[in-house]
Amino acid sequence: MRQSQLLMTTMRDVPSEAEALSHQWMLRGGYIRQTAAGIYSYLPLGWRVLRKIEAIIRQEMDAAGGQELLMPAVQPAELWKESGRYDVYGAELIRLHDRHDREFVLGPTHEEVITSIVRQEISSYRKLPLNLYQIQSKYRDERRPRFGLLRGREFLMKDAYSFDRDWEGLDASYRNMYDTYERIFSRCGLAFRAVEADAGAIGGQGETHEFMALADIGEDTVVSCSDCRYAANLERAESVAPGEPASMRDSVKTGGSSAMERILTPDVKSIQELTDFLQVGAEQLMKTLIYRVDGELVAVLVRGDREANETKVKSYLGAEAAEMASAEEVKQATGAPVGFAGPVGLRLKILVDHEVAAMAEGISGANQEDTHLKGVRPGLEFPLEYVGDFRNVAEGEPCPRCGAPLQFHRGIELGHVFKLGTKYSDAMNGKYLDADGREKPLIMGCYGIGVSRVMAAIAEQRISDGRLVWPMSVAPFRVHIIPVAVKDETQMELAEHIYRELSGAGLEPLLDDRDERAGVKFKDADLAGAPLRIIVGRGAASGEVEWMGEDGIKISLRAGEAVQRSLEEAGLQLK
């Protein structure tokens, strides 16, 4: 490609709305342009990267036994109502009506459509197992689109669905896709980690893993062990139970310590204010949080120095939605304003984190304004009917598998694999006949990759020292040939010769044939991101050029040597 013909309009200044490095560089480099909030057009550079990521995905999915198809982005709302997700999915589901007032949705995912297709096309066990996938735009009405392609309202996604006869078959399909994802992300040049995760709105009946690209801008927290292979998303990471509840100990059985004491705490609402007022550590406090879970108010108790985990609360209760109760709901449930809720005498279901259950006694709200209780004993002053893990783990606490300290990293979710089981086949009557002619539900799995998000994550990891360097496997152009002065016939003749040789070998070179200053060319080359660069300057008269690899180090080579070295870096040969 000749750069004079390439649509690559670069920006010198960082756009004010771009927070993430990948967003800044892809706008500056002319990879993408915003059409609306969270909605982008992909210009030629960006589209070339996306097509190469897609090619890797297709190669690996086909090799793993997947079959590609294409489903509609516009889906009948009836399918979502049939699966039970129409009301559950929430405000992110974009709903619309046609001229006949029939209701449709813009697909954020395709479990309903694929189940509808397979229940029509597959009736016998002889057609199973089956793995179907597509690469298509998806739509979610994000409340706050941000970070460019990392959180948008329209995005490109690969979604795959497996159908098996039994759970053993699903286990094999799941492992096949897990291994396939590791190959895909490795080939894309990403530093990533597979972590245990929560199924979220997709749902399911088995294990689920997210594949995370490690990056400071990531919105997810990756919890990993400093010694063993344990890793999980923060919302799923397990905390280690400290032991049996305090109410089971001999000291409590025989009456425990002092009786409860009521303490006046005027205008003391937050944990920090309470610790300062009482001169105690936050670990001595019992924090009572009121949630609305599937329409029911529920109390969650965690230690004062911990954060409650809504995902774990939902999972424990088998609920679809959980959110903090409003100030009015808190007052109706407790009789006191926010900041003074406590478990004693509370007429709600009380979920007690196992750290609180293990406390001999602690300090809690008194369900009365400006008042707290001291000497509150779990199991005596309030019930321990619902005890579990309801908090976020903290960095440095012991790994639930081996006891070594846990580490925290930021991560960008690249892909997610789920064991759906019979969630959709039961709801939508997806069945097959086994060898004995008996009807059985299809056992499903689903497997997604955010293709446009992968592009952003690669850029996020590959920007350093004022230069974007794409991995060879996805680079829009693998080598950038830059003649310093296009009016110098010797330089242009040598640059054209190198360009022809590399083009013939399939290296996809970009020749900067523009009549621009050298500084402009080099700045644009930093944005174009080719992993290799050949600079044709004054040494052209003697057949010498400067060659630069991914490390940014320039070396002088004969033109033929530069061509050969470029081919070797790309794993190619002259034809």
Description:
This protein has 575 residues and is of the alpha+beta class. It has three domains: 10-211 and 412-458, BirA Bifunctional Protein, domain 2; 246-388, YbaK/aminoacyl-tRNA synthetase-associated domain (YbaK protein), CATH 3.90.960.10; 477-570, Anticodon-binding domain (Rossmann fold). Helices cover 27% and strands 28% of the residues. The strands form eight sheets. Strands 3, 7, 8, 9, 10, 11, 12, 21 and 24 form a nine-stranded mixed sheet that branches. A five-stranded mixed sheet has the order 16-14-15-17-20. It has a five-stranded mixed sheet with strand order 28-27-29-30-31, sandwiched between helices. Helix 2 (44-63) packs antiparallel against helix 5 (167-187). The longest helix is centred in the N-terminal third of the chain and has 21 residues, at 167-187. It is globular and about 95 Å long. Residues 249-257 have low confidence and may be disordered. Keywords: Aminoacyl-tRNA synthetase, ATP-binding, Cytoplasm, Ligase, Nucleotide-binding, Protein biosynthesis. Belongs to the class-II aminoacyl-tRNA synthetase family. ProS type 1 subfamily. GO terms for molecular function: aminoacyl-tRNA deacylase activity; ATP binding; catalytic activity, acting on a protein; proline-tRNA ligase activity; transferase activity. One of its GO terms (cellular component) is cytosol. Its EC number is 6.1.1.15.
Structure in a nutshell:
Belongs to the class-II aminoacyl-tRNA synthetase family. ProS type 1 subfamily. The chain is an alpha+beta fold. Helix content is 27%, strand content 28%.
